[in-house]
Design brief:
18 helices; Rossmann fold; NAD binding; binds nicotinamide-adenine-dinucleotide; alpha/beta; 6-PGluconate_DH-like_C_sf; 2 domains; binds uridine-5'-diphosphate-xylopyranose; elongated; UDP-glucose 6-dehydrogenase; six-stranded parallel beta sheet; oxidoreductase
C-alpha cells in the first residue's frame, strides 16, 4: 500500500488529503500538524474548517485510510510521498518584509523530513511558494540526506474555498512539475498515478519544476487582476451613471474574456491573492524587473483603493461622520460558504469605520466573536503564522459587538454594510429591518446582493458598488 503523509492540516491539506483518501482506497493517507487543537478537531465531529461537502468525505474515510495525527516524525518516516502544505505567509520583518514569502515553516518541515527519513521519498510542494523554492528545498534535503534519495515535485493547489470539494472532485487541471531526469520523471509518474484514480489523464499537466511553481503565482495574479479591473471600472461607473453589472456582462460575453470572475465587490480577500501577488512583485524586483513588479503591484493598490473608497462612501453619505452611530455589518468571511476571515475586506472596512468612531455590530453565519475580535486586534500579515492558531487571550474592542442574528445586528442601526455575499442576505425581511432602524436608513451593498430598487421602495438609501447613484449619494460625494 502506498503511504502518503501530508504536513499541514489546514484549508488545503485537510480537504485535499480527504479527497485523495476517498478516491484512492488503496492508499493510506495521514495528515499531520504541529497544532494539536487542529488535529483534535479533525478527529472530532466538528471539523476545524467549514467547507460544503467536507464532513461527508471525511466521515467516509476517517479511520479507514484517512488519519489525522500529531505524531509527525513517525508518519513522515513511514511515508512514500510527503505533501508539504504548511503556511507560506508574507514576511512581517527583515529582508523583503511586507512582500516576500516567509519560508520558515517550509524550511523547518524540510529539515525535519531530512532528519527522520530512513527510505527514499517523494516530497511534494503543495504550499504556494516562490519560483525556485524547490532548488532550495533540494539543497536542504540532499545536504542532510544520509544517502537517501529525495525527489522534489511541485504540485500547486488550485481549489477555492467554499467550493473546495467540488474543485477537488472535478479540477480544471492538476499540475505536476518535476526534474527532467529519469528519477524526476519517475516521481512525476508516481504522483500522476495518484490523481489518475479520478482525474482524466489529459487534465493532468506535467511541466518542469519552475513552470509549475510560477504557474500558481501567475494564476492567482491573473484572477485577482480581473477583480481589480472590474473594481476599477466600478468607480468609473459610479462617476458616469454606467452600471457595472451591465458592463461586466457585456465585456464577459466576448468569448476571449469569458463571464466568470467579473463581479465587482468591496475588494477581494482571502489568504492567497494578496500574499501571492506581493510575493510575485518581490520576485520580479529581485530579478531586476521593476516594470513587471509595478504592473502587478497595481492590482493590490486598486484593491486597497476599493476598500477605502467603500469606507469613504459610507462616512460621506452619513453627513461625513459615523461617530457613535451604530453600523451593522452583515458578513465578515472573505466570501460566502466559508468561515475563513484571512485578509477579508471586512477587516479593513471595519477598521476604517472604527477609526471614524463608529459602533459596529457584526453578524456572519460562520464566524465566531472570538475570531472577529482577534482579526480586528491583529497586525497586518500576522494572521498567517501558526502561533495564531493557538488560543490567546482575547483583546475585545468595546466598539464592536457580534451577534448570531441579522435582525439583532441591524436593530437601531443607522446603516448596514453588506460585506459577504451570503445567500441568506438576499431574503432577509428588509421591511422589518427598516422599521427597526434609525432614519434615514442606509444600506451599503459591498457585494451587490440585494435588490436595490425594492429596498428603495421600502425607504432605504441604497449604495451598490458600481451602480448608478441615488440622488442622496450624488449630493454627498465620497472623497477617494
Ligand atoms: P492553513 O494555515 O490553513 O494550514 C497550514 C497548516 O500548516 C497549519 O495548520 C499549521 O499549523 C501547519 N504547519 C505549519 N508548519 C508546520 C510543520 N512544520 N509541520 C506540520 N504542520 C505545520 O493554510 P492553508 O490555507 O491550508 O494554506 C497552506 C498553503 O497552501 C499556503 O502556501 C497557501 O498559500 C496554499 N494554498 C492555499 C489555498 C487556500 O484556498 N487556502 C489554496 C491554494 C494554495
Ligand atoms: C483563490 C483562487 O480562486 C484559487 O484558485 C486558489 O487556489 C486560492 O485563491 P479563494 O481565495 O479561496 O481562491 O477564493 P476566490 O473564489 O478566488 O475569491 C477570492 C476573493 O475574490 C473573495 O474575496 C471573493 O469574494 C472575491 N471575488 C471573487 C470578487 O470580488 N469578485 C469575483 O468576481 C470573484
Amino acid at each position: 500500500m502506498v503511504k502518503i503523509c501530508c504536513l499541514g492540516a489546514g484549508y488545503v491539506g485537510g480537504p485535499t488529503m480527504a479527497v485523495i483518501a476517498l478516491k484512492c482506497p488503496d492508499i493510506q493517507v495521514v495528515v499531520v500538524d504541529i497544532t494539536k487543537s487542529r488535529i483534535d478537531a479533525w478527529n472530532s465531529d466538528t471539523l476545524p474548517i467549514y467547507e460544503p461537502g467536507l464532513d461527508d468525505v471525511v466521515k467516509q474515510c476517517r479511520g479507514k485510510n484517512l488519519f489525522f495525527s500529531t505524531d509527525i516524525e513517525k508518519h513522515v518516516s513511514e511515508a512514500d510521498i510527503i505533501f508539504v502544505s504548511v503556511n507560506t505567509p508574507t514576511k512581517t520583518r527583515g529582508l523583503g518584509a511586507g512582500k516576500a514569502a516567509d519560508l520558515t515553516y517550509w524550511e523547518s518541515a524540510a529539515r525535519m523530513i531530512a532528519d527522520v527519513a530512513k527510505s527514499d521519498k517523494i516530497v511534494v510542494e503543495k504550499s504556494t511558494v516562490p519560483v525556485k523554492t524547490a532548488e532550495a528545498i533540494e539543497k536542504i534535503l540532499t545536504h542532510n540526506s544520509n544517502g537517501i534519495n529525495f525527489q522534489i515535485l511541485s504540485n500547486p493547489e488550485f481549489l477555492a474555498e467554499g467550493t473546495a470539494i467540488k474543485d477537488l472532485f472535478n479540477p480544471d487541471r492538476v499540475l505536476i512539475g518535476g526534474r527532467e531526469t529519469p528519477e524526476g520523471q519517475k516521481a512525476v509518474q508516481t504522483l500522476k498515478a495518484v490523481y489518475a484514480h479520478w482525474v482524466p489523464e489529459d487534465q493532468i499537466l506535467t511541466t518542469n519544476l519552475w513552470s509549475a511553481e510560477l504557474s500558481k503565482l501567475a494564476a492567482n495574479a491573473f484572477l485577482a487582476q480581473r477583480i481589480s479591473s472590474v473594481n476599477a471600472m466600478s468607480a468609473l461607473c459610479e462617476a458616469t451613471g454606467a452600471n457595472v453589472s451591465e458592463v461586466s456582462y457585456a465585456v464577459g460575453k466576448d468569448s476571449r474574456i469569458g463571464p466568470k470572475f467579473l463581479n465587482a465587490s468591496v475588494g477581494f480577500g482571502g489568504s492567497c491573492f494578496q500574499k501571492d501577488i506581493l510575493n510575485l512583485v518581490y520576485i520580479c524586483e529581485c530579478n531586476g524587473l521593476p516594470e513587471v513588479a509595478n504592473y502587478w503591484k497595481q492590482v493590490i493598490k486598486i484593491n486597497d483603493y476599493q476598500k477605502s473608497r467603500f469606507v469613504n462612501r459610507v462616512v460621506s453619505s452619513m453627513f461625513n461622520t459615523v461617530a457613535n452611530k451604530k453600523i451593522a455589518v452583515l458578513g465578515f468571511a472573505f466570501k460566502k460558504d466559508t468561515g475563513d476571515t484571512r485578509e477579508t475586506p471586512a477587516i479593513d472596512v471595519c477598521k476604517g469605520l472604527l477609526g471614524d468612531k463608529a459602533k459596529i455590530s457584526i453578524y456572519d453565519p460562520q464566524v465566531t466573536e472570538d475570531q472577529i475580535q482577534r482579526d480586528l486586534a491583529m497586525n497586518k500579515f500576522d494572521w498567517d503564522h501558526p502561533v495564531h492558531l493557538q488560543p490567546m487571550s482575547p483583546t475585545t474592542t468595546k466598539q464592536v459587538s457580534v451577534t448570531w442574528d441579522a435582525y439583532e445586528a441591524t436593530k437601531d442601526a443607522h446603516g448596514i454594510c453588506i460585506l459577504t455575499e451570503w445567500d441568506e442576505f438576499k431574503t432577509l425581511d428588509y421591511k422589518k429591518i427598516y422599521d427597526s432602524m434609525q432614519k434615514p436608513a442606509f444600506v451599503f451593498d459591498g457585494r451587490n446582493v440585494v435588490d436595490s430598487e425594492k429596498l428603495r421602495e421600502i425607504g432605504f438609501i441604497v449604495y451598490s458598488i458600481g451602480k448608478p447613484l441615488d440622488a442622496w449619494l450624488k449630493d454627498m460625494p465620497a472623497v477617494a
